[in-house]
Specification:
This protein is mainly α and 193 residues long. Helix content is 74%, strand content 0%. It contains ten helices and no strands. Helix 5 runs parallel beside helix 10 and helix 9 packs across helix 10. The longest helix is centred in the first third of the chain and has 23 residues.
Amino acid sequence: MSEPTQADIRRAAEGARDRVRFEEEALELADQVYRVARHLVGSREEAEDLMQETYARAFRSWQQYTPGTNLRAWLLRILTNLNIDRGRRQQRTPQMTSIDEKGDYYLYDRMEEAEGKPLDEERVIERLSQGDIVEALAHVPHDFRDVLVLVDIGDFSYADTAQILDIPIGTVMSRLHRARRILKGELAEEVVK
């Protein structure tokens, strides 16, 4: 391995100075970046997380910034892109409320709570219309709804459903279980309205 030349050392020193200058200028804009982040998201904690992600990405890719251009705009573009990505992830993420707290008899329990007396199966079915079921089904996240429709409505086997959706059979069973629980919860909400 050869000794570094004076030119190599000078380039490394200039690069280090450029990076320090970039970081100082970027950090001077932190209040402005935070204010924009706070308007984009719902809570202070989310805004702080978004701002931290923004600065982490900016510091990782600082060499992509062209000195002399608008650093504030560059940082806010990163912030906006991260927020868009976050929103997309949240849309793809299924409902995160615990479905375990909604037991197998959640629908009956909610109706009994609303009516103040025990109910039988016929009374529950009587209260549900096809429109209620379609509306509740629309609230089931897409990945879960696909499995529910194929297995429960389309009468496909777990194996066929797995093949159609190109997922393992275990995933079909898991999603079906969650989909049924979510649907029960949604139906309960529809019935007691």
